[in-house]
Amino acid sequence: MAKYKNISIIGGGTAGAFTALLLSKKINDIKVNWYIPNKNQPIGVGEGVAPPVYNFLRDNGISFKDVYRYMNGSIKTGIEFDSWVDNDHTYIRPNGDSRKLMAYNESITLKNKIPNDLVDSKEFSLHLDQSLIFQHISKIVLKNKNFKIINEYKGIDNIQGDIVIDCTGFKRNIIGKLKPDNFIDYTDKILNNRAVTFKHTYTDYEKQFKPYTISTAYNNNGWSWTIPLKNHIGFGYVYSDNYENNIDDFKNYIKNYLNLDDDIELKKLKFITGRLKDHIIEKNNQIFVGIGLSSGFIEPLEATSIRLMVDELNILHEFIKGKININQYNKKCNESFDCLLDFIILHYKFKETNNEYWNHYKEIKINKNLYSEVEDDYAWDWVYNKLNNIDMEEPIPIDKQIKIIKGKKSIDWLKQFS
């Protein structure tokens, strides 16, 4: 690692914070400058994350107790998918790295009984508030004497560092200027390009809190998320502005969920789906890397964004340690994106609505995880079988059944972290 003496991180959102956390904990002999805009305003709509994200946090010194206390966190046992076939169809996509473990976590979700030791599992996951991530992580990294936070930057020509890490989101202020024709557009596959979001405190915590994300498909186009955090609920509707939308239905869903009478105001977001061809570029004796949204974006379904970012950071760690080269880095990143893209499209293929939007997904050819470990066979099989009402019954060992029986309701289980 002596090859690199200093690193610059550009951006203060989730990608910048996670990158800073990794470098502060795993790389102790390199000086790091973290450049953050004076008006740093990360998007904070609530985020459900996959187990690898929590494992990343835990491996870098952040426990679930920390997330619960400082990032408005809550438990996530899986995702409830509603109306992805017809309006009466529902299934649970639980956490798990095997069919047996997924069946165990499905039972936990359906019964809302949380075993005491679930937080210690590698397949534990959570919800968190993205707007609070920077605030907590910045305090951690400044304990590292090699770290310095700088509250402005003036452009690519003035950024020093053997490695410059672009965490500027969709703007791609650094890596987007280095190489022409370096972006692969996914819009021919993923039609969604807009989102509206809303957050609100609980109006009836006992009824409204769930230990899982809710994902609901809409008939015209798109889908919504419901993410219960510790102190409020985050809602979002992801859709394409090229087709008739269901924003009014989404508003009514929120008002019914929270028992609200007044109209609600939604926050609007735009995004472009796709990825870089080269996520890491060498130029003028510097290494430039895109992390997070700067590297690419598929869409929020299955908590893809932070999951891919964590994969990238683990690959970056390998690169800094000299275990892989630039070509291997780009290959690993591209395989992760393309595999997860196909896995996401799988979810869209069985909606019975007959219109241009939903029929588009039915025609796309996908490959079942040919070259990446992002989602293994068990995940593909679980989603495919559930969408097709194929029996997924898996016996749960007696000792695990007893753990569920002795478990607590999620609301009561969470009290130990207060």
Helix/strand class? alpha/beta
What's the arrangement of strands in the largest beta sheet? Answer: 6-5-12-13-14-11-15
Helical content, roughly? 25-40%
- The percent range for strand residues is 15-25%
Gyration radius (Cα, Å) is: 21 Å
Q: End-to-end distance, in Å?
A: 40 Å
Shape: globular
Count of DSSP E strands? 19
What are the segments in which pLDDT stays under 50 over at least 5 consecutive residues?
none
Average pLDDT confidence is 92
Total helical segments: 13
Q: Main β-sheet, in a few words?
A: 7 strands, mixed
Report on this structure.
The protein is an alpha/beta fold and 418 residues long. The protein has helices at residues 14-26, 51-59, 64-70, 99-111, 133-141, 205-208, 247-258, 304-320, 326-348, 356-362, 377-387, 398-405, 410-413, and strands at 6-10, 31-35, 47-48, 74-76, 78-82, 90-94, 125-128, 147-150, 163-166, 183-185, 194-201, 213-217, 223-228, 232-239, 267-270, 274-276, 280-283, 286-290, 296-297. β17 and β18 (286-290) form a beta hairpin. It is globular and about 60 Å long.
Topology readout:
Elements: E1 6-10, H1 14-26, E2 31-35, E3 47-48, H2 51-59, H3 64-70, E4 74-76, E5 78-82, E6 90-94, H4 99-111, E7 125-128, H5 133-141, E8 147-150, E9 163-166, E10 183-185, E11 194-201, H6 205-208, E12 213-217, E13 223-228, E14 232-239, H7 247-258, E15 267-270, E16 274-276, E17 280-283, E18 286-290, E19 296-297, H8 304-320, H9 326-348, H10 356-362, H11 377-387, H12 398-405, H13 410-413
Parallel strand pairs: 1-2, 1-9, 2-8, 5-12, 9-18
Antiparallel strand pairs: 3-7, 4-7, 5-6, 10-16, 11-14, 11-15, 12-13, 13-14, 16-19, 17-18
Helix pairs in contact: 1-5, 1-8, 8-9
